[in-house]
Model the fold of this input.
Amino acid sequence: MRRRRVPLLPLAAATLLLLLSPAPPTASAPVATTDTVTPATPLAGNRTLVSAGRGKFVLGFFSPDPDDPERTYLGIWFNNIPSRTVVWVANRGSPLLGSVSDAALHILANGSLAIVDTTTNDAMAVWSTPPPPATTTTTSSSNATAQLMENGNLVLRVPGSGVVWQSFDYPTDTLLPGMKLGIDYHTGLDRHMTSWLSTGDPSQGEYTFRLDPRGSPELFLYRWSSRIYGSGPWNGFQFSGVPNLKSSSLLSFRFVSDPGHEAYYTYDLDSDTVLTRFVLNASGQIQRLMWIDMTQSWSLFWSYPLDECDGYRACGPYGVCSVERSPICGCAPGFDPRFPAEWALRDGSGGCRRRTELNCTGGDGFAALANMKLPESANATVDMSLGLDECRQACLKTCACRAYASANVSSPGGIGCFMWTGDLLDMRQFGSNGGQNLFLRLAASDLPLGSSAEAHSRTARLVEIIVPSAVGLLLLLVGLYFCVRKVKKRRKGVVPLPLRRNADNTPFGRRNQIAASSDAQDDSLHNGQQGNNKDCDVPSFDVEKIQAATGNFSIHNKIGQGGFGPVYMGKFDDGQDIAVKRLSRRSTQGLREFKNEVKLIAKLQHRNLVRLLGCCIDGYERMLVYEYMHNRSLNTFLFSKTSATVSTLNDEERQSMLCWEKRFNIINGIARGILYLHQDSVLRIIHRDLKASNILLDKDMNPKISDFGVARIFGTDQTAGYTKKVVGTYGYMSPEYAMDGVFSTKSDVFSFGVLVLEIVSGKKNRGFYHTELDLNLLRYAWRLWKDGESLEFMDQSIADTSNAAEVLKCIQIGLLCVQEQPKRRPPMSAVTTMLASEYPTLPEPCEPAFSTGRSRDDDDDEEHEDTAAKAYRSDSASSWTVTVVEGR
Ligand SMILES: *[C@@H]1O[C@H](CO)[C@@H](O)[C@H](O)[C@H]1NC(C)=O
Ligand SMILES: *[C@@H]1O[C@H](CO)[C@@H](O)[C@H](O)[C@H]1NC(C)=O
Ligand SMILES: *[C@@H]1O[C@H](CO)[C@@H](O)[C@H](O)[C@H]1NC(C)=O
Ligand SMILES: *[C@@H]1O[C@H](CO)[C@@H](O)[C@H](O)[C@H]1NC(C)=O
Ligand SMILES: *[C@@H]1O[C@H](CO)[C@@H](O)[C@H](O)[C@H]1NC(C)=O
Ligand SMILES: *[C@@H]1O[C@H](CO)[C@@H](O)[C@H](O)[C@H]1NC(C)=O
Ligand SMILES: *[C@@H]1O[C@H](CO)[C@@H](O)[C@H](O)[C@H]1NC(C)=O
Done:
């Protein structure tokens, strides 16, 4: 198990001893004597108060900036952890100008707690609490005490009046367990968090995080006075824009809204030994941090705002933001972009316009949008007495009502009613998890078909799919038009571009996969100047031509053998280099389906994908013709031992071509290519055979994925599912795919994770079924990571060129991708975001899938998995539990 902090019992005993006999502080012992300040015993200089019990917190004077010890503050920080982590500052705006030894904390005769400058004896000059209420007599005031509680609260008590002041009512940038973020309507107290100006300066910074209680209360992050992020209205269960905020056995979140009394957010920690804080940092990030004993550091648990869709009103009125599509802004069903030109330039802030105005007298209906962060609710009305059906009726009856939703989703079926009467703002849509249904009012003619709620939500999703593909189709048509024009021009005698010749005439080794051409060829190739191509976008080549180009499929031209058949290199008469994949005859497709598939695959065009030039059909023979790339595959460069025979380069040259910068670029490129396949392309392809030999490199060492979409040709459903025919390569296959034939985009994510670990380490993974340490790369990576020695995992040949932070980030992302549970693996969109951000919020990975046995238990625990699904961006309770509670 994990090592625990300093034994706590002896410390408590020591505190008690000191309490009983206030001995003069010695150099070795902590200077603390007690947890209380009284009029007779002020706190002066470098003495501190330590909370009784486990001694979790310290109150004392400090100078945050070592370069400026003449600015002194009174603060509370964690005891027993090495670097001082301040959670509260009394006089953040008015430091005592002097050193720590000049400061003292007194309880004045009138009962207020004040910082006193001992050089001038000037009370009240720096900071003081308001004096106790007038009802308090001066005699009882003189018996006031200020006590530092074990939860970090500094409490001022006056006999007879109880607590007259407490630090928890005046948060600075930190919310500790039990503190409230919100409004007390009786006292008018608005407890909010304000960032420090900078790490060394606790004065008020740019950012504020506070509750807006109007409508259904929502937390907003402000920069100066403008909003930059909203949590989404509270929906009885969670803030609708923070799906990951779920209570766990360790941390529980609460929101209390009692109109006329108070409204606040708070959280509780069910552990005496775990340290956690919720901070608004000086750069405007709202963060949860956990103290990790093992590393003796604060670990970032999550951080908001997280992505572009968290930007306040990112897509304008009636716009819906979703990071799962590109561009991220879309319009709600029944709406069109208000400023199409800006919209096309990916500025969605102008929002959307209703297609057909509402007819208030009848005929309006509702479209259901699933998994929504609810719109801002400042102007919304909330009626907890209505059910969802009554809510719908109420909305229909109110002409101004634009949408409705359940106001308490934690009740079965939902109770309570939100009704929005103004424009709908700040909406976003989450993936399958998070958010709730929003029912959007539309004119009859704009309504999707079907009327039940489920039908509605299905249609809402459909609309989302159809709209982008319609746009895609339009783009294709435009492309086709230009393409046709170009071909016509060519017929009029345009000279073909000079083609780069293959500089390297040595035979290629067997281990290489399809290769592809230099970039210079791309344009000329794509115009389909050869073959009897009828469609501009998918030329089909004569078999004679292919035979001539490949020396009748000569064994000397065979450059690889993939899961779907052998690959040959070839050269057309005009000098153009090609790679031909001869598909094995397993395909169950007819001719027309094959052609259709090829057409579709040819449309997949991305910088990080090898381009398909066309196909060739002859009887049962089917071939795919690709561009050829001269720098061969990643396999060649990465695993020098395995590819020693194939290369004209020696190891040193090869390695120098793969410095860390290049490797990081390759990792990024592969991620973008897969993201395109999974999300951004019209087809949504699952590759199913990602591996180093399928990553080809162009002359600038940019990675291009090959062999994508071939699985489609073998007639298997690509959306997700189950297959009996497991095509893939051991070592890269996810356990659920290899063992059960279940595949999804997350199987590709797994393979990507293996690739990342291979690229970083320069070692090949032999497959998860091996148990020996030296053979199993994932196990090796996990061991080192767990021991905090991940840098040892790195290929030593790049030690000089590497960037430790990037290397560690890649290793962690790799480990996240190879987690056993598919749902825990981040989607490629998250992977690319994590790779791109300099200080990403990375969850702690679970043990990767390298064991032979599989834990079935987790599969049954749906709730557990749902939570985990969002672990990549999240305060996922269960992922947290795994991190901290699991033995290390
Ligand atoms: C506190 O201050 C006194 C005198 O100002 C000094 O002697 C002592 O070492 C200080 N103690 C600590 C723990 O800094
Ligand atoms: C409390 O007493 C101090 C000194 O005794 C005085 O300076 C201060 O003004 C008093 N505060 C109030 C609010 O009366
Ligand atoms: C204040 O404390 C003194 C001594 O402990 C005690 O005699 C006195 O009654 C207390 N006064 C009040 C008002 O509690
Ligand atoms: C705030 O947090 C972000 C995200 O973790 C980090 O990049 C930034 O450096 C932090 N800012 C400060 C001032 O600590
Ligand atoms: C609204 O709908 C009703 C019934 O369908 C129709 O009679 C009326 O003309 C419509 N009004 C407007 C303004 O479209
Ligand atoms: C609420 O209503 C006010 C006044 O009509 C308007 O200025 C404001 O933009 C509205 N806020 C929202 C979030 O709709
Ligand atoms: C929401 O519903 C749950 C379950 O019925 C209930 O415990 C909770 O008090 C409700 N919250 C509000 C604000 O009505």
Notes: The first helix runs from residue 8 to 20. The radius of gyration is 32 Å.
